[in-house]
Amino acid sequence: MQPLTPNEILRGFNRGQEKARNAVCDRYYDALLVMTRRISHNSSDSEDLVIDTFEAFFEINRTFDDLSQLRDFLFQTCKNICINHLKKEEKDQKKYADFQERHPYTNEDFDADICYSETRALIFKCIENLPEKLKTVFRLRYFDGLSNDAVAAELNIAVKTAYNRYSDARLQLKWDLEQIKRFTLYLLNLFL
């Protein structure tokens, strides 16, 4: 089945179509997950906060003029859910005041979190699109911090093969992200 285009998502969402709501969830879930982790500093609550965000967002029953307006409202809803969650966790007002003093969260932080979250989600999608052998070696090296020798032993391959696959994965990711950057700059030039 063909994924919905942004215009189809927006039209369907404004009409209350389940398919469009699912497309919104698919499109923004990863970025919201990263954002909730950054705000709450607690990855164990992050998935619940994202689900709470979607539930609250869908209950609002609002229509949007464009997808960026929908996205901004969704991320604002997420921010509010996270802040409310943090308030509930604090036992007394003094602890909350101390928390606010230690962790001020401004609109600039919010905009940076959106950018950071969407960029991280895009990078993870690029990693997921790598060929399986490259993805496996890349994850072991980058996320698990294993050396080429350890990766080779884990996968029962030659050390040189582990090195080559990691290098190929990095080159592929660099190329993929460069293409995304070029396309983004092209779009910005069209609209600015």
Fill in the keyword field for this structure:
single chain; 192 residues; mainly alpha; Arc Repressor Mutant, subunit A; 2 domains; 9 helices; globular
SSE map:
Layout (H helix, E strand, L loop, with lengths): L5 H9 L3 H23 L2 H18 L6 H23 L3 H10 L4 H22 L3 H12 L4 H8 L3 H33 L1
Helix pairs in contact: 1-2, 2-3, 2-4, 2-6, 3-4, 7-9, 8-9
Structure report:
The protein is mostly helical and 192 residues long. The protein has two domains: 123 residues, no CATH class; 64 residues, Orthogonal Bundle (Arc Repressor Mutant, subunit A). Helices cover 82% and strands 0% of the residues. It contains nine helices and no strands. Helix 7 packs across helix 9. The mean pLDDT is 86.
Into which percent range does the helicity of residues fall?
A: over 70%
Cα separation of the termini: 34 Å
- The SSE string, one letter per element, is HHHHHHHHH
Task: Specify Rg, calculated over alpha carbons.
Answer: 20 Å
User: Which residues form runs of ≥5 with pLDDT under 50?
Assistant: none
- What shape does the CA trace take? globular
Q: How large a portion of the residues is in β-strands, by DSSP E?
A: under 5%
Number of domains: 2
Summarize the main sheet.
Answer: none
Mean pLDDT: 86
Beta strands, count? 0
- Structural class, by secondary structure, is mainly alpha
Tally of contiguous helical segments: 9
